[in-house]
Amino acid sequence: xxDPLTISVVIVSxxxxxxxxxCLRGVAQLRYPAFEVVVVxxxxxxxxxxxxxxxxxxxxxxxDQANIxxxxxxxxxxxxxxxxxxxxxxxxxxxxxLTHLAAAFADPQVTAAGGFVRGxxxxxxxxxxxxxxxxGGETALQVDPDRITVLTARPGLGIKTEGTNMAIRRGxxxxxxxxxxxxxxxxxxxxxxxxxxxIGAQTAIVPPAEVHHGFAASARRRDDRVPRDxxxIGAxxxxxxxxxxxxxxxxxxxxxxxxxxxxxxxTHMVAGRLEPRDVRRLLAGLDAGFAEGARRxxxxxxxxxxxxxxFLSYPVRADARSLVFAGRFWRRRPLRRAARAAxxxxxxxxxxxxxxxxxxxxxxxxxxxxxxxxxxxxxxSDRDQPVFTLWRFSSRIRAEIARVAxxxxxxxxxxxxxxxxxxVP
Length: 425
Description:
The protein is of the alpha/beta class. The chain folds into three domains: 7-213, Spore Coat Polysaccharide Biosynthesis Protein SpsA, Chain A; 231-293, no CATH class; 322-424, no CATH class. It has helices at residues 17-27, 43-50, 68-78, 97-104, 170-175, 188-198, 231-244, 247-270, 276-293, 332-344, 393-408, and strands at residues 7-13, 35-41, 58-62, 83-88, 91-93, 110-118, 125-127, 130-133, 138-140, 149-152, 157-159, 166-169, 202-213, 322-328, 348-355, 362-365, 370-376, 422-424. Strands 1, 2, 3, 4, 5, 6, 7, 10, 12 and 13 form a ten-stranded mixed β-sheet that branches. Helix 7 packs antiparallel against helix 8 and helix 7 (231-244) packs parallel to helix 9.
């Protein structure tokens, strides 16, 4: 049997140590046998990291500038895996994330791969499969949710991979110079998608390779996604359009983008989340950023060197199990207590807690490493389900386990029969 594909997981974090800690808690539950972790962070994030038990098993890179492309390139320089996977600090991967991504690279023609991203409620999809064109416009793609779909990009039309859930062969990414540092926070992966398209790269869409993305607060947006500053968005759009969009279309495309940002700002204002003066300030910043971005001259992007350090394999417990603790809503305390003990022992612990209602389901990954799902026995989890469905408790638990089995390792022999109240190994 051949050795598993080595994968480097790169996480960039700045001024969000709590989000980074939670992300690393999720990364520690990955069940892939051959991965390393590279963290590029500010002093505050690295100080937090050094206090973790697994700090010695993590490559650490100090960087405290508001430039995600430059930070990712620093992580890439340390990455010694044959494939480099990227995830944001305000995200958490499902335990079999890397296992599913690695399967795509069994095809030697596949250059990049990306999975689906779930949003803040842990159920709805934030992004799935899409293509991206020379204007930055995205078009949804229909793919089979039960298998890997390999798509071939062509110049001017790339296959979209989200920056918080993408993996690329290190050799190819290094050869094209990594990420363009002119994109300091926005459109960096979209630019990469179109640069890969220029070389006819094949990208795999891997639906069960899931990541949960929470949109943590930053200097550019609040945690409710209300913008604080649009200058860097404007600057990135200028860089992108000059690089990829035909010159005779740039003005019209920019006008449409600006109108969209104005509409979003006005929507927040009508909802009471912004004041009129905030809208004026944001749009002025957007325009100033666009003008500044247009002056960012392209710099040489030479091939990146071989990794600076050898592969540092992250420890994975071979005997770890995926467990489900299911019960009625009034048993939340004993369920959480049992799940916390299981997670502390290195297992993947899922709590499913149901009330006798039709409440929509929500899923969150707690700071102590538990996947906690709550909602009504008769309510919907996937948002395309009926608003109300009559269920038996045991049948509903089995259905919810089946819904996440591929992502969380609950298939096959890892799952026994479901009792009415209790633990499922």
